[in-house]
Amino acid sequence: MAALHAGEIDWWELPPSDLLEQLARDRNVTIVPQFDTAMGSLRFNHLHPPFNNVAVRRALLGAVDQAEAMTAVAGTDRTFWHDDIGLFPAGTPFANDAGIEVLQGPRDYAAVRQALARAGYAGEQIVVVAPTDVQPIRALSLAGAEQLRRAGMNVDLP
Q1: Between 32 and 128, where is the model more confident?
Q2: 119 neighbors 64 (Cβ within 8 angstroms)
Q3: With respect to CATH, is domain 33-156 assigned 3.10.105.10?
Q4: CB count, 10 Å around CB of 40?
Q5: Could you identify which of 15, 17, 24, 81 might form a hypothetical disulfide with 35, taking C-beta atoms 3.0 to 4.6 angstroms apart as the criterion?
C-alpha cells in the first residue's frame, strides 16, 4: 500500500479487503471493484452423500448468507460487492432474480437443521476444501464452512 501511495507501483491486483476503504480515500488511487461481475460458488459434490440427496441441498439454501460471504471476501463497504444475485452475476446479460427469495431475509438455522433432519441428514462428516494461496477464495470457503456448521452439518476443514 505504501508503494501505491508513493507512486512506486501503478497497480495492486488483490489488496486485502480491510484496506479498501483506506485506499479509496486517496484521490490518486482508483479502486475498480473486482466483484462487480465476479462471483463465488458454494458447490456441493452431488455425487456423494449427503449431497446426492436433493432435499439436503435444498435445505441448505436456507443457510446461505451471500452478504456474510461477500463481507468476508470484500469487507463491509457494500459499494465493493453485490448480494441477492442468482446463478449469473449482476450486470451480465443472463442475470435475473428468479428464485432468489430463498436467499433473502434473515437466516433461520434452526429451521435448516430441521429440514436437514427431515431430508435424512444424520451427521455424516463433510469435507470443505479451502485453498490457502488465494485469500479471497479462502475467505469465501471459510464463510461457507461456518454457515454449514451453523446449519448443523459436521464439517471437516482440513
Answers
A1: 128
A2: no
A3: yes
A4: 18
A5: 81
91 or 83, which is more confident: 83
Query: Which three three-digit cell numbers place residue 27?
Result: 484521490
- Decide which of 121 and 81 is more confident: 121
Cell of 78: 457494500
- How many CB atoms lie under 10 A from the CB of residue 71? 19
Could you give the 3-state DSSP secondary structure of residue 133?
coil
Q: What angle is formed at CA 128 by the lines to CA 126 and CA 134, rounded to 5 degrees?
A: 175
| Helix or strand holding residue 127 (H, E) | strand 125-127
All 3 cell numbers of residue 117?
433432519
Q: How many alpha carbons fall within 13 Å on the CB side of residue 132?
A: 2
CA nearest neighbour of 97 among 82, 107, 84: 84
**How large a percentage of the chain has pLDDT more than 70?**
96
Q: CB neighbours of 8 closer than 8 A, spacing ≥ 6?
A: none
C-alpha span between 142 and 131 (Å, rounded): 10
Sketch the domain layout of the chain as residue ranges: 33-156
